[in-house]
Each structure stands twice: as structure tokens, then as C-alpha cells.
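Chain A, query sequence.
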Amino acid sequence: MKVLILGGGGVIGQKLAQSLALRGELRGKELTKIVLADITNPAPIDAPFAVETTTCDIANPASVSSCIDADTDVIYVLAAIVSSHAEEDFDLGYKINMTGTINVLERARELGTKPVVVFTSSLAVFGGEVPDPIVDHTLLNPQSSYGTQKAIGELLLNDYSRKGFIDGRGFRLPTISVRPGKPNRAASSFMSSILREPLNGQEAVCPVEEDFLHYYLSPRKCVENLIKGAELAEEDLGQNRNMMMPGKIWSVRQLIDAMTGVVGPEPAKLIRWEADAAIQYIVKGWRFDQAPEKSIKLGLTADDSFEDNIRYYLEDDKQGT
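Chain A, predicted structure.
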């Protein structure tokens, strides 16, 4: 079993590779090779089988073709230009998030081997004038370029699967928190930084009100679900290969209270509240009343509490931040 992780240098890509390395198998077969590919060469991981790291520009068809060969059984498409960045740079967002996805799907079609393709989409595909709650078959109505690009990817994933070119499955990720590392250009980046930075003794800025509600999942659970998602039987996926990944809805205040409940009151004192109209415009266009019925029925799970998200960060990532 050979697995390719496009976006293998990112937080989730690295964690996914590490989990697969410990697991040693996927879809009932022994893992023999993982390829980690990203725009810059990803960090290597330890595994009892071959691990290759390589550069790949998914906007370049030749670069994609060099990463995907006939032996590739499972392709994780994690590479993306994130929300605020895609909104600021219209051309780059479409080049990476839309054209890059097309390049991956076209390479799979060209090979004729029908690999499993796990595509990470976003809740940003929803928005605008649709009723709550959002369910898996709610009309896609994105209110950002990033959401539009991900919606296009979902439609392509369905069509290439319907035609038998790939065995696709797409997951609309909740906001992943608490993420390790440094803030990125995602509009949701503050949803980790207002916790991560204070947990490391640093000041953080919150650009929204404390009653702002959103849909969250920990990195640990996200990786577990991506592995389960790759192992779902094709016949169980139905005519729409895309679904929401399970998460839980919490307010910013509940996130901060969870941190206080785990580590005490001092970190929360490092949070500064400063409204940011640009961030608020994007994140308030994301619908938060989510009902991920399909993925739950298929065995994917959410965190039990946000205290767990805090504990997972302390256990898995704090030492390395």
C-alpha cells in the first residue's frame, strides 16, 4: 500500500503521516511507502517502511504527474491556499485550489488505476441564504473565493468518482483547533492563536466577540477521521461523496473557559480583544449550525469537549512550539 500526502509539510499532513507510520496499515493492507509532497520539501518522519519527501507544485501538471504513479493507492489532497489568502489573491487561490485539484484528478484518470482520493474541503462551501441547520445535502452557497474553489473541488470529486476514474471521498473540515506552530493566513487562524499563544506565555489578539459561535475539531480527531475516511467502503458513500466531518459548536468564551479549566486563569489574561472588520466579514459568512449526520453514521467522531482539545495540544504539541 502506497500513500501520497499532498500538503505533507503542513500540520495535518505531518500528523497524518506520523499516525499512519505507527499504524502500519491502511484499508486492510500493509503500508509499504508514504510520499510526503509539498511546495517546499516536507520534514521527514520515522517509519518502519519507506518514506519519501519531495517537492510538488499542484498547479503544475508535470509536477503532479511526477508524484502520482500507477503504484499510488491512496492520495490525500490536503494542499491549499487558505481562506484569507485566497480572498486577497484571487488568481493564486484559483490556481492552487481549483486548478491544482483538477491536475490531481486528471493524473489519476490518466493512469486508469482508480486510486482512493481523500479531498479536504471546507465548511466555507456553505453560507448566504440557506436555512439552518446545515446538513450534508444543503445547497452549496459559498460567500468567499476559497469556499467557491472548494465547492468546485467537491463537484469534480463526485463526477470523477461517478465516471469510475477515482474512488473519491471529500470531508468538509471544521476549524482545527488547537493547531501547533505559528499563525497562518486563514481567517480562522485566531481560533488557535488565542489559545496557543497564551498557553506558551505570549499575548494574543481576538478579532471577534466572545459570543461568536463556530464549529471545531482537534488535530488529533481530524487525523483519526481522515484515516477512517480513507477506509470507508465505496458502496457506503452514496451518490454524494462529500460530507461534513463531525465537530462541535462552541463560542469563543467557551474555548477560553475550557483553557482556564485545564490550566488555570493566567493564560486567559494574555488575550487582547481588538475587532477586525476584515476577519469578521469572512468568518461571519460561515454558517455554524452544522448537522454532520452522514459522517457520524459512517463512524467518524468529534471531540467530547473542548477541554480535550486543550489537553491534546498540551500532550502532542506544546513542547515543540
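Residues 90-111 form the longest helix (22 residues). The chain has two domains: 2-174+217-244, 190-214+248-289+304-320.
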